[in-house]
Amino acid sequence: MKNTFEVRYASSPRDFKMYDTTRLREEFLIQNLMEPDAVNLVYTHYDRYIAGGAVPVKSALKLETIDPLKAAYFLERRELGIINVGGSGSVLVDGEKYELAYKEALYVGRENKEIIFNSDDATNPAKFYLNSAPAHKVFPTKKISQKEAEVVELGAMETANARTIRKLIVNSIVETCQVQMGMTELKPGSVWNTMPAHVHDRRMEVYFYFEVPEDQAVCHFIGEPQETRHIWMANNEAVISPPWSIHSGSATSNYTFIWGMAGENLDYGDMDFCKINELK
User: Fold this and answer.
1) Is 136 among the annotated ligand-binding positions?
2) What's its EC (predicted)?
3) Residues 226-264: pLDDT tens digits?
4) Is the pLDDT reported for residue 266 higher than 90?
5) What is the mean pLDDT of the chain?
């Protein structure tokens, strides 16, 4: 079993203006999340958020604490959101088993000591995408199926942004302290997500792109509305979006992405929209 982590510090929007392509990717792009028989984590100082992946193939994987947490176990002072983007699998939470099929989610509350990931079939392993943030209170662990998701249809084919939003780990479905997660599926022929773009200074966000065809790519937009940059991304890659930044993307094919966020509030509608014709 392999457990790795890295730490990324917060960046000023003033410094951001000076970043070249390499520096942009080093600061915000998260690659190699879905490595077989490994738990890979990135700890960012934006709201102390952690994004990661766990892919159990040959054997089960345990979520271990990491040094930046200074904790006896991973969830001593944290909560965890999990969405399976691979084959069917299960998560053991202090001995209780939760089966997760493709695109199903699990919220794990603070103070659960042992989290173990398993795949049902090693030839088609589960791929658990993980988001975690500090938690001030203990809430019950809860599985959220696709049927339990809160579904919103947005966009239109005429503007190439027809999409289905499935809210999975949100306060209208499950009690959380900070973490919110959901999934946006672009319909065939549509490529734009989160457009019109927005920012929310009260929350940071991480996008995880998947169901991107092997020979296609996503162009993710980042930066202040009047000072934007882009990062080209492949399948199963994530990107950190600071509170001062827009988070939007377009691709060479339709795709799906998971949005995860934490911060000052749990108001999904807390967004400051940016007019499309004023973006620069």
Assistant:
1) no
2) 5.3.1.17
3) 999 999 999 999 999 999 999 999 999 999 999 999 998
4) no
5) 96
Whether the CB-CB separation of 226 and 280 falls below 8 Å is answered with yes
CB of 84 within 8 A of CB of 147? no
Two tokens at 135?
Answer: 């938690």
Q: What is the pLDDT of residue 269?
A: 80
CB-based contacts of 64, cutoff 8 Å, min separation 6: 3, 39, 74
How many whole angstroms separate alpha carbon 210 and alpha carbon 258?
8
DSSP code of residue 178: S
For the full predicted model, state whether its pTM sits above 0.90: yes
What would you report as the CA-atom Rg of the chain, rounded to the nearest whole angstrom?
18
Task: Let me know: does 204 contact 46? Beta carbons within 8 Å.
Answer: yes
Alpha-carbon distance of 58 to 42, in angstroms, equals 23
What's the confidence (pLDDT) of residue 264?
87
200 is in an annotated binding site: yes
247 labeled binding residue: yes
**C-alpha 207, offset from chain centre:** 5
CATH number for the domain harbouring residue 198:
2.60.120.10
Provide the pLDDT for residue 267: 83
**Which residue range(s) make up the domain with 65?**
2-278
Residue 153 confidence (pLDDT)? 97
78-133 pLDDT, tens digit each? 999 999 999 999 999 999 999 999 999 999 999 999 999 999 999 999 999 999 99
User: Domain count of the chain?
Assistant: 1
205 is in an annotated binding site: yes
N- to C-terminal Cα separation, the chain: 45
Whether residue 154 contacts residue 75, with contact meaning beta carbons closer than 8 Å, is answered with no
Q: What are the strands of the beta sheet with 227-233, ordered from one edge?
A: 227-233, 218-224, 246-251
